[in-house]
Amino acid sequence: MKNVTKNKKGGARPGAGRPRGSGRYGEPTTVMRVPQSQVEAVRRFLQAGTHGNIAEIQAATATPTALPRPLFSSRVPAGFPSPAEDYQEPALDLNSHLIQHREATFFMRVQGHSMTGAGIHDGDLLVVDRALAPKDGDIVIAVLDGELTVKRLRLHGDTVTLQAENPDYDNIVLSDLQELQVWGVVTSVIHSFR
């Protein structure tokens, strides 16, 4: 009969492996199943998240908390003052007002100044809907050559242009060698004053 001894190699060892949060994303990762047809798109999205002018991406919560707030029917004049009416419309819930397709809506924080002419400033929060089909004139989140950017989509015949809304920035006219993926359509911008 043979003596069997327990192998002392392999398995978890104290202090072994990479420290938590030391990877590319600065946080723990998880394994997930992705349809094969979407692997490259997910890979490009993850690579683009660390470049470009999108500082942060967040998904809309699956179960948003309704927070109805009073909505006054009077419009606020931006010119000469007008006496305000005291009439209130039904309450407004920002979740239902800003989000059309909950499962396909994300929030992205802007980094940069190329879209100031469209009212999108550095640090603003964009509401991005991935369920909408992009069309000419839409402001979109695009993945171009592996980097995320926010620009106005212009389609003229066979020419695709990503238009900046600031004269200090050049428009990007796509060449046949460039690969463009429209990641989502910007539906709203949230701009804080304080």
UniProtKB/TrEMBL annotation:
Biased composition, class Basic residues, residue ranges: 1-11
Residue numbers spanned by region Disordered: 1-30
Gene3D superfamilies, alphabetized: Umud Fragment, subunit A
NCBIfam families reported in the protein's UniProt record: PRK10276.1 (NF007621)
Domain Peptidase S24/S26A/S26B/S26C: 70-186
Protein name per Swiss-Prot or TrEMBL: SOS response UmuD protein. Serine peptidase. MEROPS family S24
Keyword terms of this UniProt record: Autocatalytic cleavage, DNA damage, DNA repair, Hydrolase, SOS response
Protein family membership: Belongs to the peptidase S24 family.
Listed GO MF terms: DNA binding; hydrolase activity
InterPro entries linked: LexA-like, LexA/Signal_pep-like_sf, LexA_repressor, Peptidase_S24_LexA, Peptidase_S24_S26A/B/C
Gene Ontology terms describing biological process: DNA repair; regulation of DNA-templated transcription; SOS response
Gly residues: bias regions: 12-24
UniProt lineage: Bacteria, Pseudomonadati, Pseudomonadota, Gammaproteobacteria, Thiotrichales
Pfam families on file: Peptidase_S24
CDD domains reported in the protein's UniProt record: S24_LexA-like
Superkingdom of the organism of origin: Bacteria
